[in-house]
Amino acid sequence: MTVKIEPITLEQCLDLRQHVLWPDRPRESLRLAEDNDDTARHFGLFVHDKLISCVSLFMTSNDCWVIRKFATLEEYQSRGYGTQLLQQTLAIVDQAGIKKVSLDSRRTAIRFYQKSGFQICSEPFIKDGVEFVKMQRYTDLSLQ
Hints:
The chain is α+β, with helices and mostly antiparallel strands. α2 links the parallel β4 (64-72) and β5. The protein has helices at 10-20, 81-95, 110-114, and strands at residues 3-7, 40-47, 50-59, 64-72, 100-106, 119-120, 125-127, 130-138.
C-alpha cells in the first residue's frame, strides 16, 4: 500500500476538516484566522493518492507550536494512519527544536494523544457542544 505524508494546501485541509470534524457546518466556518499566517503548516497523509488525514500546525512562539484540526476519514480511523501523521508532525517539531506542543483534544481522542506523549493539562471544557481537554507535550522534560 502506498502511503505518503506531505505538505498540503489550506483548501485541501478545509475539505477534510469539514467532512470529518463538523459535517453539519459550512466549509468556510472551519477556516481559522491563523490558517493563512506564515507560521501555519498543513500536512496530509495520502493512501494511493487519496487524502485521508490532515493536521495543521501553528507556531505560537519560538518555543511552542499548536496542533489544530486533526482529521482522519472515519473509514481509515484505528488503522494507524493518524498515528503516522502525528508522529511525522512531531518529528518536524522536534527537528525544529520546539520545546512544547499543545492542542485541544476531543474527549474521545485523549488516549490517541497520550500514546504520543501528550498529557492532560486542563479540566474538561465544552466548545460548540463537544467536550475537550487541553493537552501538551514537552520535548524538554525539565519544562514539565
